[in-house]
Design brief:
The chain has helices at about 1-20, 25-30; strands spanning about 30-40, 45-50, 55-60, 65-75, 80-90, 95-105, 110-115, 120-125. It has about 130 residues and is an alpha+beta fold.
């Protein structure tokens, strides 16, 4: 019984350590921009965004002329970067929540997919400098 508790504690500790270890700071200082195209309720939605230091901002256009901004928090893992965010949109759309993932396709390009409660599902294409 003590061995099982020890192993569970060890696995949990290593997992938390992997999430909390700071990543390379020099690569994070240069913003990584992206464009996003998606759809909701038959309307095409657009957005542009940028991330640096595991934080991001995305400005988008939603259905029926709504526009807004989202603030995003990324979790930087070696190849994949999941994110969650919250934003505000005009035209009585109000508060939006979002989430998704970005994956490094090459050394200088990343792609992603996400969902925004106002703008719907979207695909992303970005550049790393």
């Amino acid at each position: 019984m003590k061995i099982a508790v020890f192993i569970k504690t060890l696995i949990t500790s290593l997992s938390l350590l992997a999430l909390l270890v700071p990543s390379q700071a020099s690569a994070q200082l240069i913003p990584q921009p992206w464009v996003s195209v998606g759809g909701k309720d038959g309307d095409t939605t657009y957005a542009v965004g940028a991330k640096a230091l595991d934080l991001g901002v995305e400005v988008g256009s939603g259905p029926k002329g709504s526009t807004g901004v989202d603030v995003l928090k990324f979790i930087s893992l070696p190849v994949i970067s999941p994110y969650v965010g919250i934003g505000y949109y005009s035209e009585d759309k109000g508060v939006a929540v979002s989430g998704g993932v970005q994956v490094g396709a090459t050394d200088n390009i990343f792609v992603g997919a996400g969902y925004n409660s106002v703008r719907g599902f979207n695909g992303q294409f970005g550049i790393k400098f």
